[in-house]
Amino acid sequence: MKTPEKIKEIVQEKYGQIANQSKAQNETSLCGCGTSCFGVEYSVFNEDYKNLEGYNPDADLGLGCGLPTEFALIKKGDTVIDLGSGAGNDCFVARAITGETGKVIGIDFTEEMIQKARENAEKLGFNNVEFRFGDIEKMPVTANKADVIVSNCVLNLVPDKQKAFAEIYRVLKPGGHFSISDVVLRGELPEKLKDYAVMYAGCVAGALPQEDYLGIIAETGFKNVKIQKTRVITLPDEILLQYLDKQELDAYRNSENGIFSITVYAEKPGCGCGTECC
């Protein structure tokens, strides 16, 4: 069992390497959310951003598993925070919606990603998009700051998800909400998949059962929790056979277990009896 510190070290190392590659390179080399593994040319996680306003190809490293900004109900003038902002892809889409009167803050704990995102923002001339180095379990943001929080295939990489959702609750304004795309499980993954570090960085081994994931959100205090989109993730045999033998693979395929991308929405209660207010 890897310690939280070791898991974070693995993720930082892998995503530091990914930051220095193009989307095309990522899809055929390193494992990461949205990418394939070991040269097997599949992209089983990520979705196509190209039709979304604000999309910038330089910021798209193919690391997501959904389109959270499409479902996030962002309004003009909103303050939006993107958790695990990478090269800035979701931040720039969010900025197209919130406009010049809004504010977009990206948080990432990989230095190489922060540098790349800042370079992209500078090229675009945005003065209301900023990127902060920090840990999602302890965000460098004051309480009650954001109208909306988005995240794309990142929280499954966070060792302490209870702490992460508690931070999301703290940082959202009363009445604010989040829309998060993430990888969850239905049933159990084979133990061999859970044990591999590269699968952790590939957003599989760190995923929780869907009911546990939604349970953490509800226990944190969020209301109106709902799944906005579900998509099955089918890892090709060529990938799974690097971790499982044929018999184990057949058992997994014949089970009801599976990997899913979900986009989940929830709200922080607004001002009223028993709630905190600005």
List the helices and strands and how they pair.
Layout: H1 4-19, H2 23-26, H3 68-71, E1 79-83, H4 89-98, E2 103-108, H5 111-124, E3 129-133, E4 146-152, H6 161-171, E5 172-186, H7 191-195, H8 197-201, E6 208-209, H9 210-220, E7 223-233, H10 237-240, H11 246-253, E8 258-267
Parallel strand pairs: 1-2, 1-4, 2-3, 4-5, 5-6
Antiparallel strand pairs: 5-8, 7-8
Explained architecture:
The chain is α/β, with parallel strands linked by helices. The chain has one domain (4-267): Vaccinia Virus protein VP39 (Rossmann fold). It has eleven helices and eight strands. Strands 1, 2, 3, 4, 5, 6, 7 and 8 form an eight-stranded mixed beta sheet that branches. Helix 4 (89-98) links the parallel strand 1 (79-83) and strand 2. Helix 1 (4-19) packs parallel to helix 5 (111-124) and helix 6 (161-171) packs across helix 9. It is globular, with a radius of gyration of 18 Å. The termini are far apart. Residues 35-42 have low confidence and may be disordered.
